[in-house]
Design brief:
Number of helices: 7
Helix content: 40-55%
Structural class: alpha+beta
Distance between the termini: 35 Å
Number of domains: 1
Shape: globular
Radius of gyration: 18 Å
Order of helices and strands: EHHHHEEEEHHEEH
Strand order of the largest sheet: 4-5-6-7
Number of strands: 7
CATH architecture: Alpha-Beta Complex
Amino acid sequence: MEIFADIDQGSVAWFELHKGLPTASEFFKVMAKVGPKGGTSHKEYVQRAQYLRVLAGEILTGECREKEWFGNRHTERGKAREDEARCLYALDHDVEPARVGFVRNGNCGCSPDSLLDSRNVLEIKDAIAHRQIERLEHGALPSEHRWQVIGALLVCEDAEYADFMSHCRGLPPLYVRVYRDSVKAELAELRAGIDRFCEERDFLVTRVKAMQ
């Protein structure tokens, strides 16, 4: 496991570290299934195929992917309020979250919003008010962030737990702690899914090279 603490997320160096690697924010694509038992839409499966091509393209060309997503007012607001949320977490938990750029572990990686005590993980999401209220009512890890949080535990192999924080200015924060021991089955499923995905990526790379 390699921790790159001094790399700014979104920088050129950060994209270089991502090159060819599936990362936690995209693990939901890696784990997409299609069919009656998959519980995943065909759209998500198409996203998985596209993600395979993106990573294969980085390996084949040696160049980082082009940015296809520039965000919207919600994502920009989230970035602007991340420090505010981090400070609130620090106050509520009496800890000092440490920023980290990227963590690489074998054939995958992640970009936690912070590390806690040099090993545990903090993931922060900023939510609009009605979404935050919904999350507070449910009081559980939102399904759309499930694989990212479990993936951070997989990549950060020394972590005992990952804390998910949903933040909305003016509303109470939601904190959900996910212990490694409570998601052993999901970790094994994700490990197998990433390995399978990387095998498909490598096969695609080989197939395209044979076209030259």
